[in-house]
Amino acid sequence: ERTALVRALTSPGHPEKEFWVMLSLFCNMAYDSAAHISTPVAIANGHPGLTAMGFAAPDPDGLLRFKEYSYGRPLARLHPDTTSSGSPA
């Protein structure tokens, strides 16, 4: 019944289609990203979307790091003048 309702509300020709599509996109975004709170707090609180996606927890210092690169290797060496905070000198 819920699927039928969403199909009806978002079908071509429904007078409120644009509203229902935007509302569903907003709800899905909130589920996926927890954009309304910081990511470390969301993960610590067990945010359902981030948990379902297997989003990694931050390191003990609270920073998000990715221990494995997406390409299986670093993309580039750090520039020698890069500061300890990661900023260019």
Mean pLDDT: 85
Structural class per helix/strand content? mainly alpha
Q: How many helical stretches?
A: 4
Straight-line distance between termini: 59 Å
Count of individual beta strands? 0
Shape: elongated
Strand content: under 5%
The level of helicity is: 40-55%
Poorly predicted regions are none
Largest sheet: none
Radius of gyration: 20 Å
The succession of helices and strands, N to C, reads HHHH
Quick overview:
The chain has 89 residues and is an all-alpha fold. It contains four helices and no strands.
3D architecture notes:
With 89 residues, the protein is an all-alpha fold. The chain has a domain of 52 residues. 42% of the residues lie in helices and 0% in strands. It is built from four helices and no strands. The longest helix has 17 residues. The protein is elongated and about 60 Å long. It starts with a helix and ends in a 36-residue tail after the last helix.
Topology overview:
Blueprint: H1 2-9, H2 17-33, H3 39-44, H4 48-53
